[in-house]
Write a structure and sequence with these properties.
Elements: E1 8-10, H1 13-21, E2 28-32, E3 46-50, H2 59-71, E4 77-79, H3 81-87, E5 91-94, H4 105-114, E6 120-123, H5 129-143, H6 146-168, E7 176-179, E8 189-190, H7 192-198, E9 207-208, H8 217-223, E10 227-230, H9 237-244, H10 257-260, E11 264-267, H11 269-272, H12 280-291, E12 305-307
Parallel strand pairs: 1-2, 1-5, 2-3, 5-6, 7-10, 8-9, 10-11
Antiparallel strand pairs: 3-4, 11-12
């Protein structure tokens, strides 16, 4: 079904980016507090906010608080039902992939029951790059922007093919560990392993098409990554770099090849990796630059990544019996 000039509410930063990329910015009438790209999204009414003050919490504190709320059957988000009723949406963009990333099925069900007019709902639950493209096409069909959606998909696909031609010809494919959370440590999941492969790397701990899961520090040490990508979901590069300072306290940190060679990078996960939207193509190009800087240039923003400073391993004091 295609809606003519629908009033759209987005529960997802990635869906907000898709809608604006399709020229639907004026029809976007409500967003989440995390919708910060493109700039026009920041002027929209906010209908969804975090319950937890995650901006002031450590990675460990966030993990513990999220786990407790989920055990208690509590939501991580607060939806402003009164505002949604006033906005009278024709279309709601949401997901059912990750309860931590955005409101999911339970919250939406309660909201729909409270609305006088039931809007269309478009579920965006991608697990790989192809399904991100499918979501973009589905949004195009739902809003009468089919040709615009297909053009975006084809442009992104061409860029990825060009990137793969470069990295596919290289002999070196470094061992990579893409760290989606620091405390506890989570591996890369869903579309991230594809991005690493296209960028010319190998991540033996990743979960292609599957959920990001906890991995033991022993597994990281055994994999011995040559490039370490620090990409905590929800953080920009500066925030990720600050959180990464705690990693030096982990046993064996200074023995990792990535640490010895000065190839530990904190990246802007929000912009290039965590949100399954058009900018994952930029993310693949960024990864390729970090893995193969002599072969792939980075033409994106300077806030995309931070090279973490090399810190010497502390000297072990001499043992005096």
């Amino acid at each position: 079904m295609s809606l003519a000039a629908p009033r759209i509410i987005s529960f997802l930063p990635s869906a907000t980016e898709m809608a604006c990329a399709l020229g639907l910015g004026e029809q976007l009438v409500g967003v989440t507090h995390e919708c910060d790209h493109p700039a026009e999204a920041k002027s929209k009414p906010v209908v969804v906010r975090n319950v937890l003050p995650i901006e002031s919490m450590s990675q460990g504190e966030v993990d513990a608080a999220v786990a407790q709320r989920m055990r208690d059957g509590l939501s991580l988000y607060c939806v402003d039902e009164a505002l949604v009723r006033r906005l009278e949406p024709d279309l709601i963009l949401t997901q059912n992939l990750c309860e931590v990333c955005a409101p999911s099925g339970n919250e939406l069900g309660e909201l729909l029951r409270a609305l006088a007019k039931r809007p269309e709902v478009l579920w965006m639950t991608p697990r790989n790059l192809a399904e991100i493209d499918d979501n973009l096409r589905e949004l195009g069909r739902a809003t009468g922007r089919v040709s615009e959606a297909e053009a975006l998909v084809q442009t992104g696909a061409a860029r990825l093919r060009a990137l793969q031609q470069i990295t596919g010809s290289l002999l070196e494919r470094p061992r990579v560990f893409f760290m989606e959370w620091l405390d506890p440590v989570y591996c890369g999941g869903h579309w991230i392993p594809e991005m690493v492969a296209i960028a010319g790397g190998r991540d033996g701990l990743a979960r292609p098409g599957g959920d990001s899961v906890r991995v033991s520090w022993r597994e990281v040490l055994d994999w011995a990554p040559q490039v370490l990508i620090i990409a905590p979901c929800g953080l920009n590069a500066d925030q990720a770099a600050e959180q990464a300072r705690s990693l030096v306290e982990r046993p064996g940190w200074f023995d990792l090849p990535a640490v010895r060679d000065g190839r530990v990078f904190a990246v802007n996960a929000n912009s290039y990796f965590a949100r399954p939207g058009p900018r994952v193509v930029d993310g693949a190009e960024l990864l390729a630059h970090l893995l193969h800087p002599d072969h792939v240039a980075w033409g994106g923003g300077q806030d995309a990544y931070r090279l973490l400073p090399t810190v010497e391993a502390p000297e072990t004091p001499a043992f005096n019996p």
